[in-house]
Amino acid sequence: MNQKTLIKEKIINYIYTLSNQPVVFKDLLSANSHYNEKMYVDPGKLGFRMNIMKAYTVYLVLSTLVIMPLIGLTHYFLKSIDFHFSVLWAIIITSAIFIGFNFFRAWIRDTITLKLIKKAWLIHFPYFPYYKYSQKVENIYNESLKSEISKKNLQLYVMDKLIEKSQ
Q: How does the average pLDDT of the chain come out, rounded?
C-alpha cells in the first residue's frame, strides 16, 4: 500500500463510523446501481455515518497545509500592492476554502461508498470481479425492478441472469 492510500484510509477511518452489520443483498444492488449512475448513495444502506466535526477538523488541517505555504510565497508580492487587491484576494480565497469543503465531503463520501460496495461485493459475488461485473449486475437489477421480482427471489434471479450472461 502506498503512502497516499495509507493517508486516505486513515482519514476515512477517522471521519466515518462503520456498522458491524453486513450489507443486505438488495441494498448492495441498489447502492451499486446508484453509484454507477453517479447518484447519491444512502449511507444507511451501506452502514456508515460521517462525523461532521471530524470532517471539518481534517479539512482544516489539509487546507492549512496547502494555504500556509502559498501565503508564505505570495506575501512578499502582495504586501507591495494596493490594499484593495489584498482584500479582494482574501475574499476569493476564503470563498474557495468554504466551497472546497463541499468537494472534499463529496470526494470522501464517494471513496467510502466504493470501498464498502467492494467489501460487500466480495461477500455476495465472490466469483465475479467488481470492475468487470458491476455494470452487468446493475443492468440485471434494473431488469428485476421492471419485472417486479420479489425480494425473496431477487438473489436467485440475479445469480441466474449473471451466470447466463457470463457464459
A: 90
Q: Global pTM?
A: 0.86
CA-wise closest residue to 30 among 156, 126, 116: 116
CA–CA dist 17, 23 (Å, integer): 15
- pLDDT above 70 covers a percentage of the chain that reads 99
Which pLDDT tens digit goes with each residue over 100-135?
A: 999 999 999 999 999 999 999 999 999 899 999 999
Q: Where are the domains of the chain?
A: 3-124, 127-167
Helix ranges (DSSP H) in the chain = 3-15, 25-36, 43-46, 52-78, 83-124, 130-146, 151-166
Whole-number Å distance between alpha carbons of 142 and 152: 16
Widest pairwise Cα distance in the chain: 73
- Residue showing cell 470526494: 107
H-helix or E-strand containing 49? strand 48-50
Cell of 105: 465531503
Spell 99-136 as b/e; 16+ CB within 10 A means b: eeeeebbeebbeebbebbbeebbeebbeebebeebbee
35, 114 Cβ separation under 8 angstroms: yes
User: Per this entry, what is the length of the chain?
Assistant: 167
